[in-house]
Design goal:
The structure is a single chain. By secondary structure, the chain is mainly beta. The protein is about 0% helix and about 45% strand. It contains no helices and 11 strands. The chain has a 6-stranded antiparallel sheet with strand order 3-4-5-11-7-8, with no helix packed on it. Strands 1-2-6-10-9 form a 5-stranded mixed sheet, with no helix packed on it. It is globular. The chain starts with 12 loop residues before the first strand and ends with a strand.
Length: about 130
Amino acid sequence: MEEFPVYIREGAIVPMNIERNYTGFGNETSKGRITWLIYPGIDNQFTVYHPDKTGSSTVSMINHSKSVELVLKDTKKPSILNVRMDKLPMKITFNNVGLKDSIDYQFDIKKSRLVVKLPKQADGVLKIEK
């Protein structure tokens, strides 16, 4: 009775401030970064305004039949992209540079999650090829 279901629809982009591991979406290493929960399926965009008055960050999602593009704009803080995926993507690039499994991203088959940690404030396009 202490847990409540949360229903999230396709296309949702949810910014979170994760500082501990109790949510299951990150841990102490997530502190100081924006964790973006991404649910592909419908094109969408979300802008978060930082409470510390450093500006805003925007993530736009563009869905294609064989890929998903996440466009990061005005990123004032490092980001973690936590993307709902049914299977390991064939290829992942950020600004046309290939990312490496277990170094730049991790895929958790049990949770159906792709987690990409961008090391610094970085505008650009993350392309996930299904």
